Amino acid sequence: MVKGKQGYTAHSKFLRISPKKVRPLADLVRRQPYAEALALLETMPHKGAALLRKTIKSAGDNALFQNDELDEESLYVHELQVLEGPRLKRLWVRGRGRADRQVSRMCHISVAVEEMT
Is the dihedral of CA 16, 20, 23, 25 positive or negative? Predict the structure, then answer.
């Protein structure tokens, strides 16, 4: 999680997508200006991009709500973490009476936005 009082935060938990699929997208927008990060994620066709965009937008809205003197142009993505959540383990029935294990991974996304100095 985002530690301490570092800007304005938002969290999305128990998202049904593997953290391995979201981390490369997070690397693209980390330390980017807020508006530029949202625009970049808007154009991507990935499911993880939509989830990241939603969380970053929520952190930006929290910042604008808590501090009236801020505007979107003065914010940037200060910290962005994609952590592993619990795994759903299911039985996957195969031929000849066999069975495999299907593992559905989840992730947690934590975002902190701050004012540019």
Answer: negative
How far apart are the two ends of the chain, measured CA to CA in Å?
24
Parse the chain into domains and list their residue ranges.
8-115
**What whole-number distance in Å separates Cα of residue 117 and Cα of residue 109?**
25
Which pLDDT tens digit goes with each residue over 56-96? 999 999 999 999 899 999 999 999 999 999 999 999 999 99
Superfamily of domain 8-115: Ribosomal protein L22/L17 (3.90.470.10)
Helix %, strand %, coil % of the chain (to 5): 40, 40, 20
Report DSSP state, residue 70. Answer: -
User: In what helix (H) or strand (E) does residue 80 lie, and over which residues does it extend?
Assistant: strand 75-93
Please provide residue 34's backbone torsions phi and psi, each rounded to the nearest 5 degrees: -55, -50
For tokens 């993880």, what's the residue? 48
